[in-house]
Specification:
Number of strands: 16
Strand content: 5-15%
Strand order of the largest sheet: 10-9-11-8-7-12-13-14
Helix content: 40-55%
Structural class: alpha/beta
Largest sheet: 8 strands, mixed
């Protein structure tokens, strides 16, 4: 019984060795057995009584040489020797079986295992200056589709670490690979991307670009991605090569937590947080070429003298819908808004959702500071509505207002509401249908009243025509065909086909954000700005000193840059033109401050009450140095401990030095492009 168990355990080690990725273990068996048998035959040959020679003599050939020759080459049989013929035959049979069957079969198995281990992603190699992708979600395909805008990544090896099926991912990549990525070198690894040992086997410290994208349908994907990021930072603590890291998230709370972190502890990892839904909304609302300028929310209509306002209607308070509203709230700041006007032209963002009242309370809880300063209307039916105004102790100065309709787009009173908005000449109307079902979104878009689809040439769209954005995660083939092939539906614009894709403009936007940070650094230190470094390497030292929150603020400012300059019709040489330069800078500063107010409120910062803010500003401007110092300490404590910023205020209420700082910064924005 004991011998049987040992024999079975020996066989288990034998079978296991043939499937290991370490080939030397599998080769040990035939080589070790061959060495043992050869030594055994040597010993038998030495002690075997000599056999009388009848025909020829063996001469002086040693018996161990005769045995070795028979063992490795059957052509030496029958060898004229003193060894018995039966013994020679036994050596030949055992040697031939071992070398031709056992050893060849083992080598074949090793090669097959190596092929399978490669396809299964279990074999590791050595790479340097490579692109490392942690996760195998659909984002990978869309990331590859942007390679035309990233020539620096085309010549690098791409190492993809996934915990999903490597075979499926390899087939997906091969089938979906765009033309721009045909010549890329791909290596797919299988493993846990949050495991330090697995990350170390990917040469994490030698990678030049890292994308943390996660897996499709992965529970708690954001949590897993952040866990990967933490492990990555720890492993790169002693790295010497700079790496760009893109951390993908999908939930707003993840971005809030990440922005609360201090600046990165070392300078070899440049982290950029990419919210998937916000990235999609940004790509949709910020045109990437002048040919799609008619798809902007303002359609180039809102100048300082315009009597129109932007009205964005979002159908579905889904994560995509909330991201669409968040992005629009940071982009829709126009020069025709004046808080001193009795009826100011505010951008209006309207949500339509069957649970709008419940969602409103959730939204209000998450963004309480924003809603304390906002005009809000909730309508539950044709006649049932309630509204709230900004808290008087803070002031009424925001250029965004909110509206919530409890119902569906199929209800008649909501269709009447949409029709009235479409026919209102004072509104620049856009709809974003952001439900979870692509087919239902398209059906809802095409079932809108006929007044939403005036017959126009798709090549010459009318600015007055409402634009209907329809969320199509996946291919969006039907919606794209309706947009391009059917003139009636040319204003139905699909978006989200590049679900979670890497924005092609992000590389340019990051560089713009670094330049904006450079301008602020120069202005805050009282240094003149004659030029801005063109290369990102010259700006990295200042960039690395920022926290993730400060980097995100600079990136938001960079995203708003083109709409800002466009809405004010700022010429490229405006800084060199004295005539009207002061007015232009004042307009730019007002719009940028309005955007900053909205960004801070969306991030959860609160303003100070008007009276308290006035007293604090007076103390900061006092001639008493001790009073100024105490006020500065108090102001810093408000921001760091209580999340309260005194500069969330109307532009005209900013201190004189604050306005001058902002004027100086925006007057150099034309140099950022």
């Amino acid at each position: 019984m004991q011998i049987s168990s040992k024999w079975k355990r020996l066989l288990w080690h034998f079978d296991r060795s043939l499937h290991t990725h370490q080939a030397w273990k599998a080769l040990l068996w035939p080589l070790g057995l061959g060495a043992f048998l050869l030594l055994f035959f040597w010993l038998i040959g030495l002690i075997w009584p000599p056999t009388p020679m009848t025909l020829y003599t063996a001469g002086g050939v040693p018996r161990w040489a005769e045995t070795t020759g028979l063992f490795f080459d059957a052509g030496n049989f029958p060898l004229r020797s003193r060894l018995p013929l039966l013994f020679q035959f036994l050596i030949v049979v055992v040697g031939s079986a071992l070398l031709t069957a056992f050893l060849v079969a083992t080598l074949t198995t090793i090669l097959l295992n190596r092929r399978d281990n490669y396809r299964d992603g279990r074999t590791r190699y050595h790479f340097a200056d490579h692109v490392l992708v942690l996760g195998g979600s659909q984002t990978l395909i869309h990331l590859l589709k942007t390679l035309d805008d990233k020539p620096e990544l085309k010549d690098k090896t791409w190492v993809i670490l996934t915990s999903a099926d490597p075979h499926r991912l390899r087939d997906l990549v091969d089938a979906s690979l765009p033309e721009a990525a045909r010549g890329l070198t791909f290596v797919i690894y299988y493993g846990n991307s949050a495991d330090p040992a697995t990350l170390r086997s990917c040469q994490i410290e030698l990678a030049s670009s890292i994308f943390i994208i996660g897996e499709d349908n992965q529970p708690e994907q954001d949590q897993h991605n952040i866990e990967c990021w933490n492990a990555l930072r720890h492993l790169r603590s002693n790295a010497t090569q700079m790496a760009q890291c893109y951390l993908f998230t999908s939930q707003p709370v993840s971005g809030q937590l990440l922005r609360a972190l201090p600046q990165e502890s070392h300078t070899t990892l440049e982290t950029n947080v990419v919210n998937i839904h916000q990235s999609i909304a940004r790509q949709t609302l910020i045109p990437q070429s002048h040919s799609s300028d008619h798809l902007t929310l303002d359609r180039f209509l809102l100048t300082a003298d315009s009597t129109r306002f932007v009205h964005l209607v979002i159908v579905g308070m889904t994560p995509m819908g909330l991201a669409f509203a968040d992005t629009a709230a940071q982009l829709c700041h126009f020069p025709n808004f004046s808080s001193s006007d009795p009826h100011p032209l505010r951008t209006r963002i309207t949500f339509i959702d069957p649970n709008a009242d419940v969602q409103l309370e959730c939204f209000r809880t998450q963004c309480q500071p924003l809603f304390n300063l906002s005009h809000i209307t909730l309508r539950t039916d044709v006649n049932g509505w309630q509204s709230s105004r900004p808290d008087k102790e803070y002031g009424d100065f925001l250029d965004i207002e909110w509206q919530f309709l409890k119902g569906t787009i199929h209800q008649q009173w909501i269709r009447d509401f949409l029709l009235a908005a479409a026919l209102d000449n004072h509104q620049v109307l856009s709809l974003a249908i952001c439900g979870d079902s692509p087919s239902r979104n398209l059906a809802d878009a095409l079932s809108l009243p006929s007044q939403f689809f005036p017959f126009n040439d798709p090549d010459t769209p009318s600015a007055a025509t409402p634009v209907i954005y329809t969320y199509q995660p996946g291919s969006g083939v039907l919606a794209q065909a309706a947009h391009t092939e059917v003139p009636r539906f040319h204003n139905v614009v699909p978006f989200g086909m590049t679900d979670g894709s890497f924005d092609p403009l992000d590389t340019t936007r990051i560089l713009a954000a670094k330049r904006i940070n450079y301008i602020y650094h120069k202005v805050d230190n009282g240094k003149p700005i004659n030029s801005i470094p063109l290369e990102p390497l010259s700006l990295n030292n200042l960039w690395q000193q920022l926290s993730i929150a400060e980097k995100q603020q600079a990136l938001h400012a960079a995203a708003f840059l083109d709409p800002l300059l466009r809405n004010t019709k700022c010429p490229a040489d405006s800084a060199d033109n004295d005539k009207g330069a002061d007015t232009m800078a004042d307009t730019l500063a007002r719009l940028e401050h309005n955007r900053w107010n909205m960004e801070m409120l969306l991030e959860g910062y609160s303003p100070l009450p008007t009276d308290h803010r006035t007293l604090l500003n007076q103390a900061l401007a006092s001639d008493d140095s001790q009073l100024r110092q105490n006020a500065a300490v108090q102001n810093k404590r408000f921001a760091s401990l209580h999340h309260v910023l005194k500069d969330i205020t109307p532009y005209d209420d900013l201190p004189a030095d604050g306005r001058q700082r902002l004027l100086t910064v925006v007057s150099h924005y034309h140099m950022v492009r």
